[in-house]
């Protein structure tokens, strides 16, 4: 806490620096707009030249739809495969439709096979066909083979360009082999995978270790201690987990017979991790993850409204509970004033438990081994929270409304609802996970429905029993 | 959607596989428990031997506090530096206190300087002193120098072990240099950084490119196109952003004079990204991010209760709004039944906008350039959502309560509240960001306070104007 100030200062300074270093500033966008208006292609070329593909993609996402079309009509040749790869899913289709066939063909031809797969797998049939036809026959076969693996599998994620060696090779032989085959090398690689003669991976050697070893050293003498292969059918979430947990940089992928068929690198795994984090965050907020910042009002409404409809149904359920106590409320209007407090506290406490549970399931810190300890802890927290907050709430309520009974009733209802909130907040995501559904999916709606219903029922029910 | 079934099957299959491949199964924990009870150190050794440090750390996190102490009392020698590095912050202090001095000293001596810094920076003074004293003098100086950089800066994140070369060197010279200096090399490295004679980085060469080039090739002839240096004072969030945005594997860090002082690798950046994602998710759920799954009931309650107290205050504010309409509710109890619907819908819609805004700010997709377009879109979505849901809600309400007026009032209140929800959901996090605060911090409380207050006020206010 003593370092808070220093931390804040650093954060501000860093924010300023990063505005120069990484953020796309408004000037750039204004310049682009002027150049597009003036149809000055050479100037646009010069403006884009120093930018990374990821930044050009961001710029495409940040301008309006009209600006995008005008820009691409002038400057489609600048859109290479990497820019397409960096684009948001939502925008890829739109941008690909705007590109002339020849530009699109040139763009995809430069990409590694895994990037082409990533690019095409969510497009429409006609667009996929157009892209596949643009590829060299060998590349086309590679992409089609990758697409034969199930969606979201390691087979879709991997690149087929692999640097491997037989285990009895020496460092010198391997270096000579690399120098003789520069054309076939992947753009980035960090390890040489050693295989037996039947192409089964048996270990791997880091390039750093190879470079620091004598030419006569046998490759198998300098393999890394830990070595993991990934089945091509493994789900990409598990692949991403393994990369994160074991700090992998690249890992060989094997088919059902254990033979080397590709390699997955850290950048692929990071994209999956990022998507999964985004999905969990948005789902907990009641937003379907497919939405994109560049979607329009209608598209966004269409995506958001289903959750609101569900919430309308659950809110009606809560209203139905209140309706049962119409006579009680008529007799004591203070209940109507106070009842949202009990429900809202339950909703908040339930969301706390829920959020911690969803995160712990995602990071696999919450396992069968510690599930019950976690549920008990949360239930205990619910009770303690209830006890510590019920007293002040009961006191203030009793004083303001001049009724000891009302204070006792609201305090008791709060304790009940915070306990129920903690239990629902943990059991709902755990149950969804056991059903092999995403624990973040609809959890929030379930949990707040429970806390609303129980909150109103406990408060109004206790009131009608003891106050009337 | 046609692939849903296939996807579900794959997910299930992958879940089963991963239970074998990555998850720590209950058997392991049961075996460990039995071995600890039997004080069978050799068996524990054999059980732990094949496990990755990250898995041992997870196991330490998943057992109860008592089991942990009994286990470490028998088997502390197995806790090496890597296991300590992988432990949750919350547990590090506890585990370090349980370790004999000599074990701790041996454990930290194997680590790279950046890992020691990461290990010690959140410990208490006495523990830091104990660890620093265990280090060789040279390593101690390196760690102390790193600790001199501000918290959460690139200087804290980097390792000081750097592989660099003068730009005019040939590949052959560099390989000979590496072979002659194997002792000083970092455990993992992916690039050679080229510097001028004053140690200013001028480019970098991937090891793959080096290996595939002839010995006579000049290093400067095979540098990568894109090259970024990171100032040592840059905030770690910006560092992580750059790694993610530009798919970096490693990047040189420079001091104020532009001289090379260290290198940051992807694993460091991934840890920061992961922490930031976790922080955003938990903050949006109203949980402070320092909490850990291994915290007990009291500790967890202590961390959770502040947000609930804030929520109690804001709920009281909402109750105050309702209290203004006591007479109206007395005259028409149906209002008490229906009012939570308007508030809850607003809360949900506000959370949707908020979640999208927080995520977009974190990924820097929401910038000054497109802020107003985003706010307008969300406001438009709020209006459309309101219009599309108000009609069915008004109809059903009118029918159930036999009052056209009540239907019109609830419909109008819903439209107002969903519009306000969308605007508050976007403006609150944007405002926090401009104030250099975390946009996820307390956003949820602010937004639901606004939607509760406006929801109750609009519904009850319209009702008292038009229905009484």
UniProtKB/TrEMBL annotation, chains A, B:
Annotated compartments: Cell membrane; Membrane
GO molecular function, one term: magnesium ion transmembrane transporter activity
Alphabetical list of SMART domains matching this protein: CBS, MgtE_N
First-listed, main subcellular location of the protein, grouped into a coarse class: membrane
Classification via SUPFAM superfamilies: CBS-domain pair (SSF54631), MgtE membrane domain-like (SSF161093), MgtE N-terminal domain-like (SSF158791)
Topological type in the membrane: Multi-pass membrane protein
Ranges for domain CBS: 222-279
PROSITE patterns listed in its UniProt record: CBS
Keywords assigned: CBS domain, Cell membrane, Magnesium, Membrane, Metal-binding, Transmembrane, Transmembrane helix, Transport
One cellular component (GO) term of this entry: plasma membrane
Segments crossing the lipid bilayer: 305-325, 331-358, 379-402, 408-432, 444-467
Pfam families: CBS, MgtE, MgtE_N
Gene3D superfamilies found in the cross-reference section: CBS-domain, MgtE N-terminal domain-like, SLC41 divalent cation transporters, integral membrane domain
Summary of the function given for this chain in its UniProt record: Acts as a magnesium transporter.
PANTHER family in the cross-refs: MAGNESIUM TRANSPORTER MGTE
Homology family: Belongs to the SLC41A transporter family.
Subunit relationships: Homodimer.
NCBIfam families, A to Z: mgtE
Protein name listed in UniProt: Magnesium transporter MgtE
Source organism: Roseicyclus mahoneyensis
């Amino acid at each position: 806490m003593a370092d808070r100030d220093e931390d804040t200062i650093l954060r501000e300074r860093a924010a300023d620096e990063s505005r120069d270093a990484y953020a796309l500033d408004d000037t750039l966008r204004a310049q682009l707009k002027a150049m597009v208006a003036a149809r000055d292609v050479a100037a646009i070329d010069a403006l884009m030249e120093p930018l990374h593909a990821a930044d050009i993609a961001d710029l495409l996402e940040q301008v309006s739809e009209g600006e995008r079309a005008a820009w691409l009509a002038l400057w489609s040749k600048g859109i290479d495969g990497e820019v397409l790869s960096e684009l948001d899913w939502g925008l890829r289709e739109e941008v690909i439709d705007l590109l002339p066939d020849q530009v699109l063909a040139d763009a995809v031809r430069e990409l590694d096979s895994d990037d082409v797969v990533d690019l095409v797998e969510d497009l429409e049939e006609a667009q996929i066909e157009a892209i596949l036809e643009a590829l060299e026959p060998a590349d086309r076969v590679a992409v089609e083979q990758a697409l034969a693996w199930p969606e979201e599998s390691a087979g879709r994620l991997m690149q087929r360009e692999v640097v491997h060696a037989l285990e009895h090779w020496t460092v010198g032989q391997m270096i000579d082999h690399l120098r003789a085959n520069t054309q076939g090398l992947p753009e980035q690689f960090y390890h040489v995978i050693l295989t037996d003669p039947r192409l089964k991976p048996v270990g791997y050697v880091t390039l750093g270790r190879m470079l620091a070893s004598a030419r006569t050293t046998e490759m198998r003498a300098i393999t890394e201690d830990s070595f993991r292969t990934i089945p091509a059918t493994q789900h990409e979430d598990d692949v991403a987990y393994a990369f994160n947990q074991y700090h992998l940089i690249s890992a060989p992928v094997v088919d059902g017979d254990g033979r080397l068929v590709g390699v997955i690198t850290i950048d692929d795994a990071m994209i999956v991790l990022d998507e999964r984090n985004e999905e969990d965050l948005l789902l907990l907020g009641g937003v379907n993850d497919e939405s994109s910042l560049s979607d329009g009002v209608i598209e966004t409404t269409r995506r958001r409204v289903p959750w609101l409809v569900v919430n309308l149904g659950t809110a009606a359920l809560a209203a139905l509970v209140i309706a049962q106590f119409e006579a009680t409320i008529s007799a004591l209007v203070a209940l109507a004033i106070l009842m949202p407090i009990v429900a809202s506290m339950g909703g908040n406490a339930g969301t706390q438990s829920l959020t911690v549970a969803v995160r712990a399931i995602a990071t696999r810190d919450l396992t069968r081994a510690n599930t019950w300890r976690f549920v008990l802890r949360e239930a205990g927290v619910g009770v303690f929270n209830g006890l510590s907050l019920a007293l002040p709430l009961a006191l203030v309520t009793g004083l303001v409304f001049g009724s000891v009974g009302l204070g006792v009733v609201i305090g008791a209802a709060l304790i009940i609802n915070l306990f129920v909130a903690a239990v629902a907040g943990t059991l709902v995501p755990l149950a969804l996970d056991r059903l092999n559904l995403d624990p973040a999916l609809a959890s929030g709606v379930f949990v707040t429905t429970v806390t609303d219903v129980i909150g109103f029922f406990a408060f109004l029910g206790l009131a009608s029993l003891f106050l009337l």
